[in-house]
Design brief:
Elements (H helix, E strand, L loop, with lengths): L2 E7 L8 E2 L2 E2 H13 L8 E7 L11 E4 L3 H9 L9 H13 L5 E8 L9 H4 L2 H6 L5 E7 L4 H13 L3 E5 L5 H15 L21 H6 L4 H9 L15 H16 L4 H8 L13 E4 L4 E4 L40 E3 L20 E4 L10 E6 L1
Parallel strand pairs: 1-4, 1-6, 6-7, 7-8
Antiparallel strand pairs: 2-3, 4-5, 9-10, 11-13, 12-13
Helix pairs in contact: 1-2, 1-7
Length: about 375
């Protein structure tokens, strides 16, 4: 099978921030080495590394084809510089367009980011609904939020991913590396990036109350059928009329009863199907489904409509030590001589700088122009 894989990597300045004693990009490198790269670089894979666009203006993000050798892929990931802002949605749009122009059997887009898009772009401004339905929602999209603390940023990243028909997961700044890896491993499996079997359980615990056998039989599952499942070596626990059944046991029983007694699937095939799952069979049919086209289980990707919200502060996350635009409305706002500043179109900042603040009258702005635009670099000098 020929797979076309886009790795959209956030090389913004905020990836230099620290989480739990490590820089974010160091955590990202460890995740790539141990969990992400082992799922790609297979025979037939065409892997593209895509870095962020350099600005919100019309441009194309930088790409390179990675060799199908994981050690070389990792070396390239470790060689990335982290010094950009985050025009993330424009960059993902570039990845989508690249998928549309490449012939493959399967398309995968993996995105790793530590913050919201800094251009304030909305999904409907980038990709029309017709394109989403015809192409994008057939792609496998996984967006990993690495230590994104802002609730608005997490909301917007999830909303964007859901619109693409993909899956978003959050690796929290409070998570240990082990916890991050566990979340990522499951997400890679659920999203279809990893074809590793058996599938992870759908749940480890369930709320609810223990059920008596009268209640179970009223739900259509007989004690005799339960005993048959146990005698076949499928049901892990021994049914007992005198002992109530807990929620996890009931979930396993309901799943196996439907597959063995209600589906009409031949026994030989059910054995093959169960061989791809873990005992005890803590699964449900609203979590996984059998894909007859490839004879394997797949996860449903659960999605709910989420509204994207304005997030003006996202633009300040990547260069907090250089970008003074956050302080424009504060009395302590000041500009250092000979320090380079980047133009941001904030509500208090007009393109010409003439209306920023009265105290700018003490400065001479270079370059001298009345047509400054977002992304330009300027320098303040005393008159």
């Amino acid at each position: 099978m020929k797979r076309y894989i886009e790795i959209v990597y956030d090389n913004s300045g905020s990836m230099n921030d620290r989480v739990g004693g490590k820089k974010k990009y160091e955590i990202a490198q460890e995740l790539f080495e141990k969990d992400i790269l082992p799922t790609i670089g297979l025979k037939g894979d065409h892997v593209v590394l895509r870095l962020l666009r350099t600005s919100c203006e019309d441009s194309i993000s930088r790409t390179e084809i990675l060799p199908n050798q994981r050690s070389l892929m990792l070396n390239r990931i470790k060689g990335i510089s982290h010094d950009q802002s985050t025009p993330l949605f424009f960059t993902v749009y570039d990845a989508v367009e690249a998928c549309r122009n490449f012939r493959a059997d399967e398309y995968l887009i993996f995105v790793l980011t530590d913050g919201d898009d800094t251009c304030g772009t909305r999904i409907e401004e980038l990709i029309d609904e017709d394109t989403l339905k015809k192409y994008v929602r057939f792609y496998k999209v996984l967006l990993v939020q690495l230590a994104v603390d802002s609730p608005i940023s997490r909301n917007n990243l999830t909303a964007f991913t859901n619109a693409l028909g993909g899956q978003a997961i959050s690796l929290d700044s409070s998570d240990s590396i082990t916890q991050m890896r566990r979340k990522l491993k499951l997400a890679l499996n659920v999203s279809g990036f990893s074809n590793k079997l058996p599938l992870e359980h759908c749940f480890d615990s369930l709320p609810g109350f223990d059920l008596s056998w009268d209640e179970i039989e009223s739900a259509g599952i007989s004690f005799h059928q339960s005993m048959l499942l146990h005698q076949k070596g499928i049901l892990e626990w021994m049914p007992d009329l005198n002992i109530n059944v807990n929620t996890l046991q009931m979930a396993e029983l309901r799943f196996l009863h439907s597959l063995i007694f209600k589906s009409g699937i031949p026994e030989d095939l059910t054995k093959t199907m169960l061989s791809q799952l873990k005992k005890p069979y803590y699964y449900s049919f609203d979590c996984i489904y059998w894909d007859f086209s490839v004879a394997r289980w797949r996860y449903f990707i659960q999605q709910n409509p989420i509204e994207q919200l304005p997030n003006r502060d996202a633009r300040f996350d990547d260069f907090p030590e250089k970008n003074k635009m956050r302080d424009f409305d504060e009395k302590q706002c000041h500009y250092k001589e000979n320090e380079i500043y980047r133009v941001e179109l904030a509500p208090t900042l007009m393109p010409s700088f003439r209306l920023v603040r009265e105290d700018l009258a003490d400065f001479e702005i270079k370059p001298k122009t009345k047509n400054l635009k977002e992304g330009d670099r300027i320098i303040f000098k005393w008159k």
